[in-house]
TrEMBL record:
Name of the protein in its database record: Crp/Fnr family transcriptional regulator
Alphabetized Pfam families for the sequence: cNMP_binding (PF00027)
Lineage: Bacteria, Pseudomonadati, Bacteroidota, Sphingobacteriia, Sphingobacteriales
Residues spanning the membrane: none
Domain Cyclic nucleotide-binding: 13-116
InterPro entries linked to this entry: cNMP-bd_dom, cNMP-bd_dom_sf, RmlC-like_jellyroll
Length: 192
């Protein structure tokens, strides 16, 4: 039996669900465990679910024409994950999503979330705020890539993802920063 403590606390950051609304929302939630290195979504598939990370960590990435992977986002505990363009438009995904650790997920299907917006309007407000925060994060990330040094991006990564560095492979962090693992090692030594 899943424990809903973390996801309900996440909702409480922006909306106040009453007991009946909590019961309804949790009755619609689905749960799954994704083993380390397993794919949750492949580029080209339609993202049919919006995921909440209860435990573990996902990465959102894309492969370039040479097959190199570029991490654009990490989603540790209490984060939400999806290819939002694919999910909201029910179109093929640009990004892939994979587990960096064995990950416990709660999720809403597209259809169930659309119905929840009608039945529990507070959730539409919650996900609007989540989308606004996500867009803000995206804008800061783009600005960081074009205007900050690799060292500044590394320090920003450490602030955005405290303690994640000890949990995931250096190659994934380097990919996120847009540098090589060797260069990341040099930055770490300078900031050690």
């Amino acid at each position: 039996m899943p424990v809903f403590e973390h996801i309900l606390a996440n909702f409480a950051l922006h909306v106040n669900l009453d007991v009946a609304e909590e019961a309804y929302v949790t009755s619609v939630l689905q749960h799954k465990t994704l083993e380390k290195n397993k794919m949750l979504l492949e580029t080209g598939e339609t993202c049919r679910n919006l995921y909440f990370i209860d435990k573990g960590c996902l990465r959102v990435f894309n492969r370039d024409k040479d097959g190199l992977e570029h991490n654009v986002l990490f989603c540790p505990e209490n984060w939400w994950a999806a290819d939002m363009t694919s999910f909201s438009g029910q179109v093929p995904a640009y990004y892939s999503i994979a587990a960096l650790e064995t990950t416990e997920l709660f999720y809403f299907s597209y259809q169930s979330l659309e119905q929840l917006y009608i039945d529990v309007p507070k959730l539409e407000r919650f996900f609007r705020i989540l989308a606004q925060n996500g867009f803000s994060l995206y804008q800061r990330r783009v600005n960081s890539i074009i205007s900050r040094s690799a060292e500044e991006r590394y320090i920003q990564f450490q602030h955005l993802y405290p303690k994640l560095e000890q949990r995931i492979a250096q190659k994934h962090i380097a990919s996120y920063l847009g540098i090589t693992p060797v260069f990341l090692s040099m930055i770490r030594k300078r900031n050690g």
